[in-house]
Design goal:
The complex is a heterodimer.
Chain A: H1 2-29, E1 40-45, H2 52-68, E2 71-76, H3 81-88, E3 97-101, H4 102-110, H5 119-123, E4 125-126, E5 129-130, H6 137-140, E6 155-160, E7 162-167, H7 172-176, H8 182-195, E8 199-202, H9 208-223, H10 227-233, H11 243-257, H12 272-278, E9 282-288, H13 291-295, E10 305-308, E11 319-320, E12 322-327, H14 335-344, H15 348-356, E13 361-362, H16 374-382, E14 386-387, H17 398-411, H18 417-434
Parallel strand pairs in A: 1-2, 1-3, 8-9, 11-14
Antiparallel strand pairs in A: 3-12, 4-5, 6-12, 6-13, 7-9, 7-10
Helix pairs in contact in A: 3-4, 9-11, 9-17, 11-18, 17-18
Chain B: H1 2-14, H2 30-64, E1 67-68, E2 76-77, H3 81-88, H4 90-122, H5 127-139, H6 142-153, H7 158-163, H8 177-205, H9 209-218, H10 222-250, H11 254-259, H12 275-284, H13 292-316
Antiparallel strand pairs in B: 1-2
Helix pairs in contact in B: 2-13, 3-13, 4-8, 4-10, 4-12, 5-8, 8-10, 10-13, 12-13
Classes of the chains: A alpha/beta, B mainly alpha.
């Protein structure tokens, strides 16, 4: 008996060892490895073939290849490109260039210490000036895209912002005189409500990120850029009980209790309420600068996209600026060529195309804008301070497991403002404790 | 089980009856020697694939679960703290509870329905067509149900429109966060009942008709026929179905993801999370730092849960296989 089982044990062990070595070999052989020749680069794009943004980048690639002789192998992967990048960074088959928004790029590349400093890209000559001159310094005061050594890790090419949107054709009075403060905004909401033809505000309550934008923007309005980050960093959670946070929650509560949100917003599926807004069933919608593109296919005839910045509650009037741009992983074998292309795309020609054809907000403030976004673009240009989506808060699981569940309850009317700040204080303390802090 | 049962007679033939057998298959016959020689070529390739594709990744997952890791870059050893943190996390406990709810509640309802349908369909005219129709919901991608949910249950959706003529002016908020999970359970039952009905029916169809004839002659009623013929003869099929359902229910993910989070463009509300959704959101939420250590720890706990449950089910359902 013993000899038999010993033999089979050896067999199994041998097979297992063989398998193990095969596995290891498979892992290492997938690697591309080595230094590139600088004549080509691989680009994993956040855009998919056929999207207007993709067409603009593809046009730039064609020109770039002609002018420099560097071949760009573009892989149009779509929005999951950075999620795919994370496991790829453990191999040697790493793309030379990737793009994406700050909120996804930071966790994927920077927090893991895999992002290359882009000094060379920023120094590259674009239309006779260094590329750095097109990323205005005033953004960088509150939006940190720098590595510890001071080099930026992203070269942004577009900005996403937000606004309160309305149909200018239906509300010429708002177009002429948009509300600036919270009180003026609420007065306008009351006017819409009194008329009764449409709901004051449309909101897709099943998108947690959209719901949270209300409370997080209000906190930033009360305390300035960085104030939500400070509250979220508090290990005891007690920071939520500060007046600026409680007041922000009370303002959300005011909208909920005041019945300003469209009927059924708490039990519908995206994009139903956005569609309702686009056919004039509601007057306002607080949403990103992508809303005109996203809703253009179903909006009412003659819809005139107009917007104003989120109302102020005091002195803070920062504009949301979320960069999307190019990043180069440290492991990239053609980093130099990648940085060259990243800078090339900041050329006026492509930035103009990005504004007019892709209907995005180009990072260069001298670039052309699409008429629908002209308002947002002008507000960004004239603003003096800036904040990011969620005020840049991206601790592991914090938004999904702590902040969004509570903000959903506040926004959907399941919690009062006081209950919300109490819940945040408790849950956040538990969160930081679980993180071992 | 049945394989072993069939092997035994051949063993018995090879083994001299007078010698007491120490173990089932330890015999001196040439056949078993031959068998042993064939072990490597036959088992080897499968074992290799199994080790490469399952054992190594599982081992790696256990290793990762003992660290803090953002998916790439530096790993820091944290020992068992990912596990202790999980068991202190109310959300994880809630997610695990939801998984168990799906497993038990949906499982019981679905098996009762499947069995009832099997009995009804057994001697129904046109049962082949009926069987295909019942199976159909299983073929449809979960995405369709997610989209359909909006179409049916949105405030101005089909269900509310149909309810209006009946004087229901204030219908329930079907898609409110707290109502989503029951809706998911309902949809899952709808999706899977046909699948298990089909498997059970195959088992019931296998029963030779003379047993029923016997029943008829003995004057057994429908209940007795069920109790003494159908149940015992399909018991092993039941066991397999129970194991299959246990394994698949612990992995339920896409239906929750699509039903909740705005058809995939966001993250579903935490009220509907299952252990699999918790694992995914922890590793790949995309909007906060990935926590691969915590995510793999959660996956390992799910794996342990499946293992324990499957072993338990096999024990509870163990019966002597009836050969017929």
């Amino acid at each position: 008996m013993s000899s038999r089982s010993a033999r089979s044990r050896t067999t199994i062990a041998a097979v297992a060892a063989l398998a193990l070595s095969m596995g290891v070999a498979a892992c290492s052989s997938s690697a591309d490895g080595g230094q590139g020749d600088g004549k080509s680069l691989t680009y994993w794009s956040m855009w998919k073939v056929g999207e207007p943004q993709q067409k603009v980048i593809a046009a730039a690639i064609t020109d770039f290849e002609k002018q420099t002789g560097i071949k760009v192998n573009a892989q149009w992967q779509g929005r999951s490109n950075l999620q795919k990048l994370v496991p790829a960074l453990n191999t040697n088959a790493v793309p030379d260039l990737v793009d994406g928004p700050y909120i996804k790029a930071y966790p994927a590349l920077v927090a893991t210490n895999q992002a290359l400093g882009l000094k060379a890209a920023y120094a590259t000559d674009v239309d006779g000036k260094p590329a750095s001159s097109f990323v205005p310094e005033k953004y960088l005061k509150t939006i940190n895209i720098k590595l510890p050594d001071g080099q930026p890790w992203m070269l942004p090419y577009q900005i996403q912002s937000d606004a309160i949107w309305f149909n200018g054709a239906e509300h010429p009075e708002l177009k002429a005189n948009p509300p600036k403060t919270w009180d003026e905004f609420v007065t306008d909401l009351d006017k819409v409500k009194a008329k009764g033809a449409e709901a004051p505000i449309a909101a897709d309550g099943d998108v947690a990120g959209y719901n949270a934008a209300w409370i997080s923007t209000l906190v930033v309005r009360n305390g300035g850029p960085g104030s939500l980050m400070k509250i979220a960093e508090d290990k005891t959670g007690q920071a939520w009980k500060a007046p600026e946070a409680l007041d922000a929650a009370k303002k959300v509560e005011q909208l909920v209790k005041g019945g300003y949100f469209i009927n059924g917003y708490s039990a519908s599926k995206f994009p139903l309420q956005q569609q309702q807004w686009a056919v004039n069933k509601a007057a306002f919608m607080f949403n990103g600068s992508w809303l005109p593109t996203e809703s253009s296919t179903y909006s009412a005839k003659g819809f005139d996209y107009q917007s104003f910045p989120f109302p102020t509650t005091g002195t803070h009037d920062s504009m949301r600026v979320d960069f999307s741009g190019f990043m180069v992983p440290k492991k990239a074998s053609n980093a130099e060529a990648a940085q060259k292309f990243a800078a090339f795309f900041l050329g006026k020609k492509y930035q103009d195309m990005y504004g007019t054809e892709a209907k995005g907000i180009p990072v260069r403030d001298d670039a052309a804008a699409s008429p629908q976004l002209a308002g947002v673009q002008a507000a960004i240009k004239s603003a003096t301070s800036y904040h990011q989506q969620n005020d840049g808060v991206a601790f592991p699981g914090y938004n999904e497991k702590v902040f969004w569940p509570a903000s959903d309850k506040l926004f959907l009317g399941k919690m009062s403002a006081q209950q919300f700040v109490d819940a945040m204080a408790t849950d956040q303390a538990a969160y930081w404790k679980a993180q071992g802090k | 089980m049945s394989v072993e049962a069939r092997e035994r007679p051949s063993d018995a033939v090879n083994a001299p009856r007078s010698k007491p057998r120490k173990r089932g298959r330890e015999t001196n016959g040439t056949l078993s020697q031959q068998r042993r020689k064939l072990l490597i070529p036959f088992v080897g390739p499968a074992l290799t694939f199994y080790v490469v594709l399952f054992i190594i990744p599982t081992g790696a997952a256990v290793w990762i679960s003992l660290h803090n890791w953002a998916g790439s870059g530096p790993m820091t050893w944290t020992g068992l703290s990912n596990y202790t943190a999980l068991f202190q996390d109310e959300l994880f406990k809630k997610s695990l509870w939801n998984t168990l709810l799906l497993l038990v509640v949906v499982g019981v309802v679905m098996f009762v329905l499947s069995f009832a349908m099997t009995l009804v369909l057994r001697d129904m005219a046109g049962r082949k067509i009926a069987r295909s129709i019942i199976f159909f919901p299983h073929l449809i991608n979960a995405l369709v149900y997610g989209v359909l949910a909006g179409f049916l249950f949105n405030p101005g959706g089909l269900v509310n429109t149909l309810l209006k003529p009946f004087g229901v002016t204030e219908p329930p908020q079907w898609l409110a966060q707290d109502n989503l999970f029951p809706l998911i359970m309902l949809t899952l039952t709808f999706m899977t009942t046909g699948y298990y009905t089909t498997i059970l029916m195959a088992g019931v169809d296998r029963i030779p008709p003379y047993y029923y004839e016997d029943c008829a002659m003995a004057g057994a009623n429908a209940w007795q026929r069920l109790r003494y013929v159908i149940l015992p003869l399909t018991w092993d099929v039941f066991g397999v179905c129970a194991v299959l359902w246990t394994i698949s229910s612990v992995k339920i993910f896409e239906i929750v993801w699509i039903f909740g989070g705005s058809s995939g463009s966001g993250i579903p509300p935490t009220q509907t999370w299952t252990a699999a959704v918790y694992t995914y959101a922890t590793a790949f939420s995309g909007e906060s730092l990935p926590a691969y250590g915590a995510a793999t720890a959660s996956a390992i706990i799910s794996l342990a849960l499946v293992t324990v449950l499957v072993v338990l089910i096999r024990r509870v359902m163990r019966r002597d296989v009836i050969e017929f």
